[in-house]
From TrEMBL:
<dbReference type="InterPro" id="IPR011042">
    <property type="entry name" value="6-blade_b-propeller_TolB-like"/>
</dbReference>
<dbReference type="InterPro" id="IPR012938">
    <property type="entry name" value="Glc/Sorbosone_DH"/>
</dbReference>
<feature type="domain" description="Glucose/Sorbosone dehydrogenase">
    <location>
        <begin position="47"/>
        <end position="362"/>
    </location>
</feature>
<dbReference type="InterPro" id="IPR011041">
    <property type="entry name" value="Quinoprot_gluc/sorb_DH_b-prop"/>
</dbReference>
<feature type="signal peptide">
    <location>
        <begin position="1"/>
        <end position="26"/>
    </location>
</feature>
<dbReference type="Pfam" id="PF18962">
    <property type="entry name" value="Por_Secre_tail"/>
</dbReference>
<dbReference type="Pfam" id="PF07995">
    <property type="entry name" value="GSDH"/>
</dbReference>
<feature type="domain" description="Secretion system C-terminal sorting">
    <location>
        <begin position="395"/>
        <end position="464"/>
    </location>
</feature>
<dbReference type="InterPro" id="IPR026444">
    <property type="entry name" value="Secre_tail"/>
</dbReference>
<protein>
    <submittedName>
        <fullName>PQQ-dependent sugar dehydrogenase</fullName>
    </submittedName>
</protein>
<keyword id="KW-0732">Signal</keyword>
Length: 465
C-alpha cells in the first residue's frame, strides 16, 4: 500500500537551509504611488500573445494567435505546449484569440477557446470546448459550441469571460459589416452569453438568442468585478476608442454612434434606441486591448481600478473607477518601452502579467519578443505576523523517482500531493520538520505538493520521472 511517512530529522534543519526563490533580472522599475514596481520577463520568444488567464492550477494559460495553447509556470517561465489548433487561420488580425477555463476545473477540466478558421473558402469564427488531461498534458475532444460566425482578417473580437453566475461571455467584432452590429439576428458586433454547455440561458435579454449586448465595433477586453459589474474595452475607427460598462440588453451605438451621444444625429439615435454611452473615450485612438481589475494591497495606488493593455500607444493604463463604478477618472500610463501590449492577468499574489504583441505585423519586435512580462512590488509582504508564520518548504530530490523528502521550516497542519487540477492524491499530518513521500506507483509527470499552516497554504511543483 502506498503511503506517506513522517519523521523528525532535526539535523537536516541546520545542515540544509531552505532554497531561496530566485528572481528574474529586473528590466526596469517605476513608481506607483509609494510602491516601486519591478518589471521582469517570465517567458520569451513567443509569437503574438493574445490571451493570459490565471488558472485554478496556479499556472498561466496562454494563447498565441498562430494557434498554440500553452500553460506557463509562473515560478520558472517554462512553457508547456498543449495543442496547436489544426484548423486555425492566422491571417491579419485573425487566428486564435480568447480563452477561458471552466470554474469547476478540477471536476470539469474544460478549456474554451475562440478562433478563426476557413470554411468553403470563407473566414469564420467559432467557440470550441476542449477537455484537458493533466496526466497527459493534452487538450482533446473538441466540441464546437458556437460556429459559422462571419469573420474577416480584422474586427473579430474576441474575448471570453466566465461570469460569477456560471455563464460565458464572448465578444465578437462587426467583421467589417457595420450594419450587422445593430442587427440582433446577427452574431457580429455583439457580446454573447451562453451556458457552459453551449446552450442559451433562459434569462438572456432576447429569448432564444445568445445576444447579451449589441452595437459593438470590435471589443477586445472583458472583466467582471467582485460586485458583478462588467466592463469592456473597444476599438473605435479613427476616433473614440471606448471603455464601456456592460449592461444586459443595452445598445452600444455602433455604427450610428461613435463614442458619446454628442452630435445631433447621435443624440436622436441614442434616445430612441436605449444606447449606453461609454465611460471614457480616446481620440486619437490608442487601440485598447486586454482589461483587468486590480484590488490587491501589493500596489495600493492601483487598488479598485482597471488596468488596460494598449496596442497602438504601447502602454499600460491605470483607470481609476469613480462614482460607484459609473465613471472612469484620469488615466495614468506605465510600461511604455516594451512595444504593443495586448494580454493581461493578475495573480492572487498581486502580480500583473502582461503579454506583448510585437510580432503581429504592426510592431517592431525585439530579439526576445514576444514576451510575458511580470510587474510586481518585490518589497511587499502581506504582514509581519503572516510572513513569520507562513509555511515554507523544500523538496529533494526534484525530479524524483520512488521517494522524496519534504523539509519544513515549521510544524504544519497538513501536507498533500495533488494532481494539476488540484485533486488530492495523498495526504498526511506531519509530526516533525521533515516528511518522506513514498512515490511508488505514481505515474511519471508533474504534481503539486501543498503544505498548509495557520497562515495559509504554500504550493510547489514536484516532478516524478
Amino acid at each position: 500500500m502506498n503511503y506517506l511517512r513522517s519523521a523528525t530529522l532535526a539535523f537536516w534543519t541546520a545542515a540544509l537551509p531552505l532554497a531561496a526563490c530566485g528572481q528574474a533580472p529586473a528590466l526596469t522599475t517605476f513608481p506607483v504611488g509609494t510602491a516601486t514596481v519591478t518589471v521582469s520577463a517570465l517567458a520569451t520568444n513567443l509569437n503574438t500573445v493574445w490571451e493570459l488567464v490565471w488558472g485554478p492550477d496556479n499556472y498561466i494559460w496562454m494563447t498565441e494567435r498562430y494557434g498554440r495553447i500553452s500553460r506557463v509556470d509562473p515560478a520558472t517561465g517554462q512553457v508547456q505546449a498543449l495543442l496547436t489548433l489544426p484548423d486555425v487561420t492566422p491571417t491579419g488580425e485573425s487566428g486564435l484569440l480568447g480563452l477561458a477555463l471552466h470554474p469547476q476545473f478540477a471536476t470539469s477540466p474544460y478549456v474554451y477557446v475562440v478562433y478563426n478558421y476557413t470554411a468553403s473558402g470563407a473566414l469564420k469564427e467559432k467557440l470550441v470546448r476542449y477537455t484537458y488531461s493533466a496526466a497527459a498534458g493534452t487538450l482533446t475532444a473538441p466540441l464546437v459550441l458556437l460556429g459559422n460566425i462571419d469573420a474577416t482578417t480584422s474586427h473579430s473580437g474576441s474575448r471570453l469571460l466566465v461570469l460569477a453566475d456560471g455563464t460565458l461571455l464572448m465578444s465578437t467584432g462587426d467583421a467589417q459589416q457595420q450594419p450587422q452590429a445593430q442587427n440582433t439576428a446577427s452574431l457580429n458586433g455583439k457580446i454573447l452569453r451562453l451556458n457552459l454547455d453551449g446552450s442559451i440561458p433562459a434569462n438572456n435579454p432576447i429569448a432564444g438568442s445568445p445576444v447579451y449586448t449589441f452595437g459593438h465595433r470590435n471589443p477586445q477586453g472583458l472583466v467582471q468585478l467582485p460586485d458583478g459589474s462588467l466592463y469592456s474595452s473597444e476599438h473605435g475607427p479613427n476616433n473614440d476608442d471606448e471603455i464601456n460598462k456592460i449592461e444586459a440588453g443595452r445598445n452600444y451605438g455602433w455604427p450610428n454612434v461613435e463614442g458619446y451621444c454628442n452630435l445631433p444625429a447621435e443624440a436622436t439615435f441614442c434616445a430612441a434606441n436605449n444606447v449606453r454611452e461609454p465611460l471614457t473615450t480616446w481620440t486619437p485612438t490608442i487601440a485598447p486591448a486586454g482589461l483587468a481589475y486590480y484590488n490587491h494591497p501589493a500596489i495600493p495606488a492601483w487598488r479598485g481600478g482597471l488596468l488596460l493593455a494598449v496596442l497602438k500607444n504601447a502602454t499600460l493604463l491605470h483607470l481609476p473607477l469613480a462614482a460607484g463604478g459609473q465613471a472612469v477618472g484620469a488615466s495614468t500610463g506605465y510600461l511604455s518601452t516594451f512595444g504593443r501590449l495586448r494580454a493581461i492577468c493578475v495573480s492572487p499574489q498581486g502580480k500583473v502579467y502582461i503579454g506583448t504583441s510585437n510580432r503581429d505585423g504592426r510592431g517592431a519586435p525585439a530579439t526576445t519578443d514576444d514576451r510575458i512580462l511580470v510587474l510586481e512590488n518585490r518589497a511587499y509582504a502581506p504582514s509581519a505576523t503572516r510572513s513569520a508564520a507562513a509555511p515554507s518548504f523544500d523538496i529533494f530530490p526534484n525530479p524524483a523517482r520512488r521517494q522524496a523528502t519534504v523539509q519544513l521550516s515549521a510544524l504544519t497542519t497538513r501536507l498533500a500531493v495533488c494532481d494539476l487540477t488540484g485533486r488530492t492524491l495523498r495526504e498526511l499530518r506531519p509530526t516533525g520538520l521533515a516528511a518522506q513521500l513514498d512515490l511508488n506507483g505514481m505515474r511519471a509527470g508533474t504534481y503539486l505538493v501543498q503544505v498548509e499552516g495557520s497562515a495559509g497554504r504554500v504550493t510547489r511543483k514536484l516532478v516524478i520521472e
